[in-house]
Design brief:
Order of helices and strands: HEEEHEEEEEE
Structural class: alpha+beta
CATH class: Mainly Beta
Strand content: over 45%
CATH topology: Jelly Rolls
Distance between the termini: 69 Å
Number of helices: 2
Radius of gyration: 20 Å
Number of strands: 9
Largest sheet: 7 strands, mixed
Number of domains: 1
Shape: globular
Length: about 150
């Protein structure tokens, strides 16, 4: 019995550093797939921006400057089932935010109090990152609409 307690104690001590070393991983939210004339319009989501990864390191050859920091995994993924002549994806919060969208037609990055990527969107899968200027975790609101917001 003494040997069993010692084995369990040693096992616990061996696992403790591994458990402490694991950093929290923010999960990616899969957004509702959309096609023209989706309802309700706008689709509204929320999340937490920020992290320790420079957006510029994820953005490679983005249209627009990617400033700020985010997490490694995208905050959201979006499936566009049919092409849109116009679609607006906008992020807003209490501070300046950066929005990075990677999709089949390129990478787009915008920054500001209400950062927006809008225009014609092709069919396909899109990954969306939301960053904050200094990496600080902060709440945001993400809206997707077929009209100019």
């Amino acid at each position: 019995m003494k040997f069993l307690k010692l084995s369990i104690a040693l096992l616990g001590c061996g696992l403790a550093p591994m458990l402490l070393a694991v950093s929290p991983i923010m999960s990616q939210e899969v957004l509702k797939p959309i096609s023209p004339k989706f309802t309700p319009d706008p689709q509204v989501y929320s999340g937490t921006a920020g992290g320790d990864v420079p957006l510029a390191s994820i953005a490679s050859k983005a249209n627009g400057q990617c400033q700020g920091f985010t997490q490694k995994a995208a905050n959201h993924s979006l499936k566009v089932q049919k092409s849109f002549g116009f679609l607006a994806l906008k992020v807003s919060g209490d501070q300046n935010l950066s929005l990075l969208v990677k999709g089949p037609d390129g990478n787009y990055c915008r920054s500001g109090k209400s950062a927006e990527v809008s225009g014609a969107w092709g069919e396909g899968d899109y990954s969306i990152w939301v960053g904050s200027t200094d990496g600080t975790r902060t709440s945001y609101r993400l809206t997707i609409s077929e009209t100019s917001q």
